[in-house]
């Protein structure tokens, strides 16, 4: 593989990203409505501490979400076959999300409703951007900056949700459907994600810009 030329794969890559973009948009619409309705009718505390009805549409899209985390490992295959740089953030993100999704699904973790909603939203932007890029569209820099900002914001919101649930479980008598083990895992993942995405944002949009300015 080292001595072979990189595969082009433009059409398969477009279809891959477009398919995941459509899936993410559909998942956002069908899953988030349950979370938003609970939030509107019963408040944020209730929506974060009570898991969705196992017979609901949201439960079905929660299952599809878990399966999609396995499917999305195919992103790495495209990077390897096209001989593009495989950064630590990429494979750490995929593996960590898969592990946390399986752990949360096994426990029916209630705040997972917020996490899944945010992830569907971020991936709707991300895969739509990737699909447009694979199609050959030259998008302005601010578009990719928005995508990365959405991803980074998701991580900080994940930390905020985890802090709120920790407060409820430790300092109040309110029953919240999330084990402490899962909560600590959420803290670990979202804090490391936040740090790595901020670093990626700075390295991609600020350090590269400065180096280009020096060359000019």
List the helices and strands and how they pair.
Elements: H1 10-42, H2 44-49, H3 57-71, H4 74-81, H5 88-107, H6 112-135, H7 141-171, H8 180-215
Quantity of strands, as a count: 0
Please state the structural category: mainly alpha
Radius of gyration: 19 Å
Question: How large a portion of the residues is in β-strands, by DSSP E?
Answer: under 5%
Please give the count of helices. Answer: 8
Mean pLDDT: 91
- How many domains? The number is 1
Biggest beta-sheet profile: none
Summarize the amount of helix as a percent range. Answer: over 70%
Q: What's the end-to-end separation, in Å? A: 36 Å
Shape: globular
Task: Describe this structure as you would to a colleague.
There is one protein chain. 80% of the residues lie in helices and 0% in strands. The protein contains 8 helices and no strands. The chain has one domain (10-207). With 216 residues, the protein is mainly α. Helix 1 (10-42) packs antiparallel against helix 6 (112-135) and helix 5 (88-107) runs antiparallel to helix 8. It has helices spanning 10-42, 44-49, 57-71, 74-81, 88-107, 112-135, 141-171, 180-215. The longest helix is centred in the last third of the chain and has 36 residues, at 180-215. Residues 211-216 have low confidence and may be disordered. It is globular.
Brief descriptors of the model:
single chain, 216 residues, mainly alpha, 8 helices, 80% helix, disordered C terminus, lipid biosynthesis, transferase, ELO_fam
């Amino acid at each position: 593989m080292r001595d072979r030329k990189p595969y082009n794969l433009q059409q398969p890559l477009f279809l891959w990203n477009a398919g995941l973009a459509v899936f993410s948009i559909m998942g956002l619409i069908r899953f988030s409505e349950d979370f938003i309705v609970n939030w509107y009718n019963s408040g944020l505390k209730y929506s974060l501490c009570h898991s969705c009805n196992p017979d609901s549409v949201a439960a079905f899209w929660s299952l599809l979400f878990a399966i999609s985390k396995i499917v999305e490992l195919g992103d790495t295959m495209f990077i390897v076959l096209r001989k593009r740089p495989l950064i630590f953030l990429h494979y750490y993100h995929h593996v960590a999300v898969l592990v946390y999704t399986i752990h949360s699904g096994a426990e029916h973790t209630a705040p997972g409703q917020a996490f899944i909603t945010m992830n569907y939203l971020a991936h709707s932007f991300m895969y739509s951007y990737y699909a447009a890029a694979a199609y050959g569209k030259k998008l302005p820099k601010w578009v990719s900056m928005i995508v990365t900002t959405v991803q980074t914001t998701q991580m900080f919101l994940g930390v905020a949700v985890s802090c709120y649930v920790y407060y409820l479980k430790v300092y109040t008598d309110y029953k919240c459907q999330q084990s402490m083990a899962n909560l600590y895992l959420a803290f670990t993942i979202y804090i490391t994600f936040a740090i790595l995405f901020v670093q990626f944002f700075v390295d991609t949009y600020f350090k590269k810009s400065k180096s280009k300015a020096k060359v000019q």
